[in-house]
Amino acid sequence: QVQLVESGGGLVQAGGSLRLSCAASGRTFSNGAMAWFRQAPGQEREFVAAITRSGGSTKYADSVKGRFTISRDNAENTVDLQMNSLKPEDTAVYSCAGRRSPILGINPDIATEYDYWGQGTQVTVSS
Predict the structure, then answer these.
(1) 11 CB contacts (<8 Å, ≥6 apart)?
(2) What average pLDDT does range 15-26 have in this prediction?
């Protein structure tokens, strides 16, 4: 069993930066690929970024490519999301997700590819 807890959310002005962190408990963390999703009020959950167990392969949504960076530290059981050049449309609850497989699935941008979920952390970007 893996439990995921996000932190680092908050209020930031447009153009600013935030770094989200997801701390995992459970010894299977280092085995699986991880991802970040987000959900804005009244909207469906949206894929943000994903990373393989080794960290050697990543995938990003087009809307965040070049602005966000996903990384992980298997020794510390954490996966981070560095968010730069934030825009008001980035406002959402950000959740991390993990899967048992070490590689990204065929569709890593689909929520059903993941087995574990955190509760989320709020990110608000003001204009």
Answers:
(1) 124, 125, 126
(2) 94
